[in-house]
């Protein structure tokens, strides 16, 4: 379950104490002084703000005393992209980063973070919008991997890819129409981009990638769960790195 903080004073203190607030929900139409102060703090911290009806807040509330504001707080602190690159540098390894586009299921995110840790990836990057954050469910599903694997949240995934390309990292996108992974060179500094199983990687992000890769499949359905796809491709990268 997502960790939430309710009530005006509690939410304001969460921002001012530096907690990682993923989303702020405010009662639609509520514009008094304290609420404006909270909204201003949210904007300062680049938090997503949603104005919702009272029924939505009531259904989210655990105390029944939300006072028109509820904050969804990350169960773990986010790292930065620089933290991820530093981890690779400290290990003396070419960067291996997993980037996730539109992963909204916390169980998928937790499983991917667990896979990232076991595959030796130096970190995971998630977008700020249209994606699940580091909720308590994500932390639990990661089976402790969140303690060791940095997760960075960025405003624009495509822009982050461009910035990392300038640092010598190239990007491969998981896509059913790509070249089979066994026929591709997946060594060197690499970013593996995974989308959700429904829509895959968004067009704008896919266009930023250097090429696409596909997992060979023999069954009757045409897509894998996102966390399974991430696992298969991550360990193909591991295999190629070890055999180099």
Automatic annotation (TrEMBL):
SMART domains: SpoU_sub_bind. It comes from the Bacteria. Pfam families: SpoU_methylase (PF00588), SpoU_sub_bind (PF08032). Keywords: Methyltransferase, Transferase. The keyword Protease does not apply. Residues 4-79 form the RNA 2-O ribose methyltransferase substrate binding domain. The keyword Cell division does not apply. NCBIfam families: rRNA_methyl_3 (TIGR00186). Belongs to the class IV-like SAM-binding methyltransferase superfamily. RNA methyltransferase TrmH family. This is 23S rRNA (Guanosine(2251)-2'-O)-methyltransferase RlmB. The gene is rlmB.
